[in-house]
Amino acid sequence: MVAGCVLDCTASCKAPGQLGPMLTQADFVVLTKTDMVSQAELEIISWQIGELNPKATLFPVDGLAGYGIDRLAQWLLEQPDNCGSGEDVLRHTMPSGVCSYCVGERRVGGAFQQGVVGKIAFGKEAPVWSA
Q1: What does pTM read for this prediction?
Q2: Residues 51 and 107 in one domain
Q3: Could you give phi then psi for residue 7, rounded to 5 degrees?
Q4: In 47, 103, 107, 129, which residue has its Cα 20 to 30 A from 115's Cα atom?
């Protein structure tokens, strides 16, 4: 079945490099909040996605105005239905752990963090994921 990735364009121009297999293994990428970034930023993000996953179809959308939603819906309807074959497998392994915030922790700080939790690095120290 098709796999997608949703990317908030206001996160950072470097955000695509932080998404790992979620982006590199996606069939389509939905770019949200496109109205809140410049055309140059949108082109940089689109270029980075193309470098990491050249096969992915990009869908810039504006959820509030509905821009781009029709094109995404039409594309999804055109995809083959491969569900329920009995031989379904994940494209990538599941994460090795869960962070405490994912399971309901509301207090912030190292004393309350358990599992796989880390800060996203930006700049020169940021890892770049590849397929």
Answers
A1: 0.67
A2: no
A3: -125, 125
A4: 129
User: Would residue 130 count as lying in a domain?
Assistant: no
Burial group, residue 29, by CB count within 10 angstroms (0-12, 13-18, 19+): buried
Q: Are 106 and 43 in the same domain? A: no
Do the Cβ atoms of 97 and 116 come closer than 8 Å? yes
Q: What's the CA gap between 54 and 50, in Å, rounded?
A: 4
Q: Which of 20, 52, 53, 51 is nearest to 120 (CA)?
A: 20
The one-letter amino acid code at 24 reads T
CB 58 within 8 A of CB 31: yes
Residue 26 CA to residue 110 CA, distance in Å, equals 32
What's the chain's length in residues? 131
In a domain, 129, yes or no: no
Domain shared by 73 and 91, yes or no: no
Indicate if 24 and 45 belong to the same structural domain: yes
